[in-house]
Write a structure and sequence with these properties.
Number of strands: 0
Largest sheet: none
Radius of gyration: 53 Å
Number of helices: 2
Structural class: mainly alpha
Mean pLDDT: 88
Helix content: over 70%
Length: 145
């Protein structure tokens, strides 16, 4: 970019030769000289406009790069946060599975204990009925005597 501007300036200086010193200063500039001056001024304005455009482009590029950096940092932060949340979810899921397994084990123990109690209750009922029959038999034997 800088070399382009320097090339433009060099071309402008080559196109407009310096004033010949032999010409008297009181003489009005010729039409050709005036045209050269206007052309030179136009080229200067174009070069200045080009410089402004290049500066604006460079500023826009810096602004876009800064935006990109900010977005990239935000994305990185979000990825880190997501990773932390995923790890937390995995940890909680593992804890939940362990708790479910523990509850399932306790449920199975409870069901085994319940079945043992029912078996014991049935045995007691049978023994009670048997004792009742024994008592009735003993009473009948007493009545007979």
């Amino acid at each position: 970019q800088d070399t382009f501007i320097e090339d433009q300036r060099q071309a402008l200086t080559e196109r407009t030769p310096s004033r010949p010193s032999s010409r008297p200063s009181s003489r009005p500039p010729s039409l050709v000289e005036q045209e050269k001056q206007r052309s030179l001024e136009r080229h200067r304005q174009e070069a200045a406009a080009l410089q402004r455009q290049q500066a604006a482009h460079a500023e826009e590029k810096r602004r876009k790069e800064k935006e990109w950096d900010v977005k990239e940092r935000e994305l990185t932060d979000r990825e880190v946060l997501l990773h932390v949340k995923e790890e937390e979810m995995r940890r909680r899921h593992k804890e939940l599975e362990e708790a479910q397994q523990a509850l399932q084990g306790r449920k199975e123990d409870y069901q085994r204990d319940l079945e043992r109690l029912r078996d014991a209750q049935r045995r007691l009922e049978r023994e009670k009925e048997q004792m009742q029959r024994e008592v009735e038999r003993v009473e009948q034997l007493r009545e007979v005597e």
